[in-house]
Backbone:
C-alpha cells in the first residue's frame, strides 16, 4: 500500500526533472563547439628539416634608407636577439604562392625581384617585380609550367629583394629568405580538405601545411573582405607564427598565376 502510493510521486518528480537534465546535458556540448571553433592561433609550425632563413629583411649594403618597419616574409619562424629567422614551410602544391609584407617605401624604391632556387642554390625561376606604391602584403606565384614545378619531398629556397635604386645599377637592397618543401597530398589530408570546404585553410593549418593554408585564406579574404570570421582567422593564423602585427595589412599586389 505504501509502495503503491510512493510510485506515482516518483514518476511525477522524474517528469518534472527530465527537461532540466536535457538542458544540463546540452549546455556542455554547445560550449565545446564554441571552444573548438577557432584554434588557429594555438597551432605549432616548428623548425625542422632545413637551414634557417631571414624572415625580416635588413639591408644588404649601406646605400639603403632606414625603414619604419622591415620587409617581412610571411612564414613560420621566431625572433632572436638580433633578427627574425624563418623556418621550413610545407606545401602540397606544385606551384605555390609566396607572401611578403612591404612597409611604406620611399618613392624611388619600386624595383623588386623574386628568386626561386633548389636546395643547392641553383636558380629555377627569377623575375623582376614592379612594387606597389603603398604598404601591404603581396603574393608571388610560380608560373604553372613543368620546368618550375616543385618535386615531392625536395627542399627549395626563395629570396625576395627590394632594390635601393635601379636594380641594374645597384647591389644595395633589402632581402628576405625562406625555405619550402613539397610534401605528399595523402588520402587522409585530401579527405579533410573536402570536409573543410570552402575553408580548406583549416585542414592545411591543422596538418602544418603553412604555405597553402596562408594562400587559401588570403584568397578567401580577397573575395570576402567583409567577413569578420575570415579576418579573425587571418589574425589567428599569423599569430600562430608571431606575425599578428601584419594582420590588418591589405593585400596590395599579386604576381604570377591567379588560381
Residues:
Amino acid at each position: 500500500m505504501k509502495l503503491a502510493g510512493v510510485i506515482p510521486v516518483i514518476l511525477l518528480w522524474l517528469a518534472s526533472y527530465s527537461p532540466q537534465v536535457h538542458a544540463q546535458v546540452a549546455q556542455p556540448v554547445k560550449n565545446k563547439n564554441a571552444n573548438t571553433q577557432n584554434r588557429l592561433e594555438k597551432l605549432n609550425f616548428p623548425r625542422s628539416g632545413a637551414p634557417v632563413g631571414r624572415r625580416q629583411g635588413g639591408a644588404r649594403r649601406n646605400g639603403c634608407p632606414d625603414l619604419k618597419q622591415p620587409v617581412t616574409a610571411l612564414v613560420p619562424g621566431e625572433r632572436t636577439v638580433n633578427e627574425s629567422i624563418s623556418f621550413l614551410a610545407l606545401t602540397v602544391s606544385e606551384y605555390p604562392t609566396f607572401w611578403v609584407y612591404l612597409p611604406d617605401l620611399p618613392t624611388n624604391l619600386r624595383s623588386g625581384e623574386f628568386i626561386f632556387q633548389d636546395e643547392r642554390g641553383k636558380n629555377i625561376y627569377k623575375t623582376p617585380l614592379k612594387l606597389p606604391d603603398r604598404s601591404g602584403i603581396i603574393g608571388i606565384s610560380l608560373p604553372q609550367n613543368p620546368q618550375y614545378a616543385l618535386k615531392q619531398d625536395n627542399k627549395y629556397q626563395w629570396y625576395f629583394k627590394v632594390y635601393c635604386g635601379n636594380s641594374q645599377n645597384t647591389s644595395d637592397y633589402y632581402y628576405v629568405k625562406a625555405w619550402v618543401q613539397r610534401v605528399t597530398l595523402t588520402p587522409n589530408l585530401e579527405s579533410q580538405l573536402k570536409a573543410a570546404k570552402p575553408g580548406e585553410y583549416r585542414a592545411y593549418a591543422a596538418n602544418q601545411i603553412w604555405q597553402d593554408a596562408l594562400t587559401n585564406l588570403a584568397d578567401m579574404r580577397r573575395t570576402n573582405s567583409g567577413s569578420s570570421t575570415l579576418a579573425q582567422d587571418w589574425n589567428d593564423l599569423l599569430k600562430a607564427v608571431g606575425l599578428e602585427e601584419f594582420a590588418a595589412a591589405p593585400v596590395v599586389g599579386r604576381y604570377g598565376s591567379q588560381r
Confidence is low (pLDDT under 50) at residues 6-37. The helical segments are 2-36, 187-196, 201-206, 210-223, 228-239. The CA atoms of residues 55 and 143 lie 23 Å apart.
